Every structure is written in C-alpha cells, then in structure tokens.
Amino acid sequence: MACPSGCLNGGAQSRPEEGVSPKDWIAQLEDKYRAVGKQWPKDNPQVPILSEEWLGGLDSDKATHVLYTDYKEVEKMANSLAIKW
C-alpha cells in the first residue's frame, strides 16, 4: 500500500458505521485483511489450467502483456509551475 490506511479507507471504500471512529474502523479492516488465508498461486492446481485457457500459456505474448509492466523514468521539469495535474 502506497499510503498508510489510504487503500483501506480511501474513496469508494467501505465507511464506518454510525458511532464507530475511523481509527477503530481501519483497525477492524486491517484485522480482517490479515485473517484472510494465504495461498501461493503455484500451489493452486487451477492456475496452470486457467493460464493456458486465458493466456495461451505463461510464455505467450498475451501473458507478457497482461502479467508484466514496463517502467520508464519521468524527467524532472526545470519549472515546477509547468506540472500538469
């Protein structure tokens, strides 16, 4: 998460019920998030089947396009007033 509590309490997310403080609500959400069971995709027998059906295999061009991203450096601007938000 890029910002503390931001993703758990950001726009379009669940809101605390009446009488529950935002801090308590965030703590409840974090507890629920941590309680979710974890499983490695490699341990799930459905992953190879789905990757073959949907992507044409993990070595396909479609899989590369969907599963990976490219990063490029953003050049710093000399004039901070020219930033386009």
Could you describe the 3D structure shown?
The chain is mostly helical and 85 residues long. The chain folds into two domains: 6-35; 39-85, no CATH class. The chain is 41% helix and 0% strand. It has four helices and no strands. The chain has helices spanning 6-9, 22-35, 46-55, 61-67. The longest helix is centred in the middle third of the chain and has 14 residues, at 22-35.
**Structural class by helix and strand composition:** mainly alpha
Calculate the mean pLDDT score and round it: 81
Q: What is the CA–CA distance across the termini?
A: 22 Å
Q: What characteristic shape results from the CA principal axes? A: flat
Question: What is the gist of this entry?
Answer:
The protein has helices spanning 6-9, 22-35, 46-55, 61-67. It is mainly alpha-helical.
Q: What characteristics describe this protein?
A:
flat, 4 helices, 2 domains, single chain, 41% helix, 85 residues, mainly alpha
Fold blueprint:
Blueprint: H1 6-9, H2 22-35, H3 46-55, H4 61-67
